[in-house]
Amino acid sequence: MLKCKDVSQRASEYLDGADRPLKWQMRLHLAMCSNCRRFVRHLALTRDLASKVGDVESCSQSQSRKIVQKLRNKS
Amino acid sequence: MLYYALNAFASPGLATVSGWAATKKGFNLSASTLLNADEHALLDAAIAGSDEAYTIMVERYHSLMVAVAAAIVGPSLAEDVAQDAWFSAHRALTKFERRASLKTWLLRIVSNEAITRAKRESRHIALDCSPSDSSYLDDERFSGNGHWARKPSQWHLDTPDALMEEVDLHRCINKTLLLLPPQQRAAFRLRDIEQATFEDISQWLGVSAANARVLVHRARLTLLDVIDHYQETGQC
Ligand SMILES: [Zn+2]
What we know:
Organism (chain B): Gilvimarinus gilvus
Domain RNA polymerase sigma-70 region (chain B): 57-123
Shape of chain B: globular
Order of helices and strands of chain A: HHHH
Domain RNA polymerase sigma factor 70 region 4 type (chain B): 171-223
InterPro entries (chain B): RNA_pol_sigma-70-like (IPR039425), RNA_pol_sigma-70_dom (IPR014284), RNA_pol_sigma70_r2 (IPR007627), RNA_pol_sigma70_r4_t2 (IPR013249), RNA_pol_sigma_r2 (IPR013325), RNA_pol_sigma_r3/r4-like (IPR013324), WH-like_DNA-bd_sf (IPR036388)
Number of helices of chain A: 4
Keywords (chain B): Sigma factor, Transcription, Transcription regulation
Largest sheet of chain A: none
Structural class of chain A: mainly alpha
CATH architecture of the largest domain in chain B: Orthogonal Bundle
Number of strands of chain B: 0
CATH class of the largest domain in chain B: Mainly Alpha
Number of helices of chain B: 11
Strand content of chain A: under 5%
Largest sheet of chain B: none
Bound molecules: zinc ion
Oligomer: heterodimer
């Protein structure tokens, strides 16, 4: 039987699609434990929000041109 | 301004013999057409010697390649390694069979480049081992028997829509992403933004799939902590 601490450590695995035994163990625990339900829900919200608003720095056009220029000079 | 013929910028140094023949075909493609072009058209134009095609590829993938390199050799050498990877990619472009996507192919190249470099500089590729990273699950969270000692607090913003409206929170998230250790940052980006599989992530970052999962989990926990704090204080 999983403890809350185990659930907190394996929650991402569960959200990312765990294998069957873990999935069932997690579901069983979550059915009985409102704290872990809340934690897993918060983690899912976190993941979904960050994947939407996470502003990954991208390379600007001028930077890119410089890199391509270097590539030319090198070849 | 972007609108010029491709081969105006093609130099003999970059174009292969077959590339020159292809240049004719790409002659009428404009830079703005290339921006919306599919991967094959972009690759064809690059092989034909189009600087514009290369620039678009670099704009699209360079920062991701730097992130992967940083996870392996550390941030100080990452830019250098990524640029070397472009050079390798450029030399191998005509041999790229296009069974995988361009992104996958480029990430494989930068990963190999970084691993080689890490060996040369005798840097160890070790998993970030900082248990204090995530203060959310610190020692006081759980009692000795593994139950919550400090329970997850309630959020007043607890729907995707409510969270989407908090512009200040988004700023906090982005600030936090910049501060993550390089391995976590790359793993998070590959998984949660690029939606890559753990199998691919583990290959690109040179860690086991289990460790790739750990890295992603840690990154999410750090972000969870930020949101949790924001719910309480309205600040980062
Ligand atoms: Zn529990």
